[in-house]
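FAQ

Q: What does a record look like?
A: Structure on top, sequence underneath. For example:
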């Protein structure tokens, strides 16, 4: 079963321990779907070199920022469903309203100063603000025992990875050495993610049934 049917069936049935089961499934889904984002961040420079060229050189700095909009959106898998399940859809309005104002303000401030990089920052911050609001109201309406420390620490690790990636992009290291570092680090991070999230073949398969 896909995530949405699983969530709504579980919250409708309200079987014993359903909140713990949904929370665990959500955490695993976030970690699993974060893996492609991690790879895009680490190999952003190589992606541009292969598919772009010198005219798109700035994109290797922009891609990791845009990936964070994807990371932030993962949290909405739970928060939006919490609000919808509560049947109090008016609580979706604050994120849309405040997020819209924030988007306009951030675009005006950041794009004029930083151009395309500012547009990426504005989009990422806009998503962050909107999803934080949804998380607040979702948890207020139908709280779930999600391991917030685990999710936040994981996002912090992703942020550190992005910072290290920027240093690696600007370094004067040989391309082969860079690629070796990226392959080793991405392999380590994927293994760490799978262990940290307690994912295995059976649990991954169950996420997409």
């Amino acid at each position: 079963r896909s995530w949405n049917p699983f969530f709504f069936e579980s919250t409708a049935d309200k079987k014993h321990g359903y909140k713990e089961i949904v929370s665990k499934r959500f955490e695993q889904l976030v970690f699993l779907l974060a893996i492609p984002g991690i790879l895009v961040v680490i190999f952003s420079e190589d992606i541009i070199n292969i598919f772009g060229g010198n005219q798109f050189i700035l994109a290797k700095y922009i891609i990791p920022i845009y990936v964070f909009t994807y990371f932030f959106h993962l949290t909405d898998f739970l928060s939006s469903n919490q609000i919808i399940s509560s049947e109090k859809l008016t609580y979706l309005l604050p994120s849309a309203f405040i997020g819209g104002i924030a988007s306009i303000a951030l675009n005006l401030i950041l794009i004029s100063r930083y151009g395309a990089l500012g547009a990426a920052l504005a989009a990422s911050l806009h998503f962050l603000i909107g999803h934080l609001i949804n998380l607040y109201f979702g948890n207020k309406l139908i709280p779930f025992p999600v391991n917030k420390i685990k999710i936040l620490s994981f996002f912090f690790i992703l942020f550190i990875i992005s910072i290290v990636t920027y240093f690696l992009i600007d370094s004067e290291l040989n391309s082969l050495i860079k690629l070796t570092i990226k392959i080793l680090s991405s392999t380590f991070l994927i293994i760490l993610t799978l262990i940290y999230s307690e994912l295995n073949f059976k649990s991954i398969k169950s996420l997409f049934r």
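Q: Is there anything notable about this one?
A: The CA atoms of residues 37 and 67 lie 6 Å apart.
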